[in-house]
Amino acid sequence: MESKPRKGLFVTTFDNDLIINQRGLEKLESKTKKVQVNTKIDFNSGKVDLEHFPYAIWRKLTVQSLYEDQEELFYNGNPQGEQILSEQIAAHLYASRGVRCSAEQIIIGAGTQVLVGLLCMLIGKDHIYAFENPGFHRTRITLQDMGVDLVPIPLDENGMSINHIVVQLTVLELKQSCLFGNSFFLFS
Asked: How far apart are CA 31 and CA 34, in angstroms?
């Protein structure tokens, strides 16, 4: 790179090559084999079906959103997420699941793993975390990465087996209490 006054920066050539010995730079053969899986629909997150993606609609909405006066796009929003979206989620949770909550109780974040990590930091790593098995594998991996004790809880016809949770947590709590010389209390 060379700087010329009142003209700018220019790319220059090297007098000496940085790589003195270029032998051994041949393309190395990959040792991992790529597994080709034929799936009709891939539900993994982070993948977009480019063949069916509505580019024209996406482009139209992107241009439309930039033409309108939306100065709020240039500012940080509410740290808990957009208020209107939170209100709609609260209404949907009540209508679809019977869950009563306010918009202030809903936190919208950058994804499940980020939010689970933040929740783990808020609750603390010294607790035992139960999770559905089978469940969302990325949540389990996030909790493992956080270094917490995990208890997989099997599912039955009604969802998570509550009886299994009590038994598992009691056993784990008893083991930990004995290890650390703490007294053990069982609440039923």
From this structure: 10
What pLDDT does 76 receive? Answer: 82
How far apart (Å, rounded) are the C-alpha atoms in residues 147 and 153? 18
- The rounded average pLDDT for each run of 10 residues, N- to C-terminus, in the chain (188 residues) is 80 63 61 70 74 91 78 77 90 89 87 86 85 82 88 79 63 46 37
Q: Rounded to whole angstroms, how far apart are CA atoms 166 and 170?
A: 6
Token digits of residue 68: 């309108």
Give the closest residue to 145 by CA, choosing from 173, 119, 117: 117
For 86, other C-beta atoms within 10 Å of its C-beta total 20
Task: Judge contact between 173 and 179, C-beta under 8 A.
Answer: no
DSSP 123-166: H-TTSEEEEEES--HHHHHHHHHHT-EEEEEEEETTEE-HHHHH
Report the candidate in 90, 94, 93 with the shortest Cα–Cα distance to residue 102. Answer: 90
SS3 42: coil
Query: What's the pLDDT at 179?
Result: 44
- What was the pLDDT predicted at 81? 79
Cα separation, 182 vs 49, whole angstroms: 54
Q: Are strands 128-133 and 149-156 parallel, antiparallel or unpaired?
A: parallel
